[in-house]
Amino acid sequence: MEANKNRTLIAVMGDEDTITGMLLAGIGQVSNEPNKEKNFLVCTDNTKEEELELYFNQFVQRDDIAILLINQHIAERIRLLIDMFTNPFPAILEIPSKDHPYDPEKDSVLRRVRRLFGE
């Protein structure tokens, strides 16, 4: 429990509308600390998979992030990386976006739960 008490931030990887909404809700954090400059990434169709992977890896390695929210259509682009991540923190939650509906069949958390229950 002691190691997790500093995890106070929510990170977001999403499209412009999602990030704008989250920043308006107050989750934005920008600092001068190396590798902790900001806790969000605005993704477009032009964002390369390498950049998505880089930010994903940076966010999951930070000790101040408790939850990583990611638009499901962006998660699909780095699905293997997300499926391989098994640490309890940060929790990775896939969320819908305005232009891409949520599909529970693609959600890595729900698939893991189904496997646990033998479905």
From TrEMBL:
Keywords: Hydrogen ion transport, Ion transport, Membrane, Transport, Vacuole. It is found in: Vacuole membrane. It comes from the Eukaryota. GO terms for molecular function: proton-transporting ATPase activity, rotational mechanism. It holds the Pfam family ATP-synt_F. Subunit of the V1 complex of vacuolar(H+)-ATPase (V-ATPase), a multisubunit enzyme composed of a peripheral complex (V1) that hydrolyzes ATP and a membrane integral complex (V0) that translocates protons. V-ATPase is responsible for acidifying and maintaining the pH of intracellular compartments. Belongs to the V-ATPase F subunit family. This is V-type proton ATPase subunit F.
